[in-house]
Write a structure and sequence with these properties.
- The protein is an all-alpha fold.
- It has a domain of 90 residues.
- 59% of the residues lie in helices and 0% in strands.
- The protein has eight helices and no strands.
- The radius of gyration is 23 Å and the shape is flat.
Length: 242
């Protein structure tokens, strides 16, 4: 582009922007800490559990996932996938473009995947846990009163049950088929769309990348099914449910 220099010095251009952003964040946090009523309360009483009983804000995302998944997934699998997925990013995305300079058009996939994982699967769930989860871990809109006596009818059903399956064996087969179809079709569609990059990227990198992406999207799909359609589990077995 004419008139736009190819390179800019870090000082003062980048440092100036970062300093202004830091000031805005500090002011926002200061105003928030003054406005929000969060006093230091008395020492914890082991005989009295507060309602709602919430984890620290940075763990509320995982605590909210417990509503939609079993503890083995929300407490073990999800954190491991987050840590391992972040560790694998430099090895899965070997695109050299964007190193040393900011670019969106050359790193669209990497930027969108990161924003989806960070903003949707982390920040959005934390916001939901802080502001929308009230007594009994029920959902309350910001304008609603947190009624500790609110009663919510438990009408959630499993996906196989909604389709008429009552036997454990057939329910497991149906749910497993749905999961296999989801991962199979998603993987096949991704490989078809990115078939030109298969040789340069490699089969294993592409396979791991799409599996992590499908798991991330699957978590959101499961949350939407639970909130919107009251679907509790997709696959149900006597030993494990997803």
């Amino acid at each position: 582009m004419e008139g736009v220099p190819e390179k800019l010095h870090v000082w003062p251009y980048l440092v100036r922007l970062e300093f202004l952003c830091a000031l805005v964040v500090i002011i926002a946090l200061a105003v928030w800490s003054i406005v929000i009523d969060a006093p230091l309360e008395e020492a914890a009483n082991p005989t009295k559990t507060p309602n709602p009983s919430k984890a620290p804000w940075y763990f509320l995302g995982l605590q909210d996932i417990l509503v939609y998944f079993d503890p083995w997934f929300a407490g073990v699998v999800a954190p491991v996938l987050i840590i391992v997925g972040l560790m694998l990013i430099p090895y899965l995305d070997v695109n050299p473009k964007g190193n040393g300079y900011y670019t969106y058009h050359e790193r669209k996939v990497a930027i969108w995947v990161y924003c989806f994982g960070f903003l949707v699967l982390w920040i959005a769930l934390i916001i939901m846990g802080v502001f929308l989860r009230g007594p009994g871990w029920n959902l309350f809109m910001p304008w609603q009163y947190w009624d500790p006596h609110k009663v919510v009818a438990l009408v959630s059903v499993d996906l196989p049950y909604a389709f008429g399956f009552r036997d454990y064996t057939w329910s497991a087969i149906f749910g497993g088929s749905v999961l296999l179809a989801y991962f199979g079709i998603g993987t096949g569609a991704y490989f078809f769309m990115e078939r030109k990059a298969l040789k340069s990227v490699g089969f294993l990198r592409m396979f791991l990348k799409i599996q992590l992406a499908l798991i991330m999207m699957g978590i959101v799909i499961k949350i939407v099914l639970r909130i919107g359609l009251n679907i509790k589990y997709i696959m149900v077995t006597p030993w494990i449910s997803v």
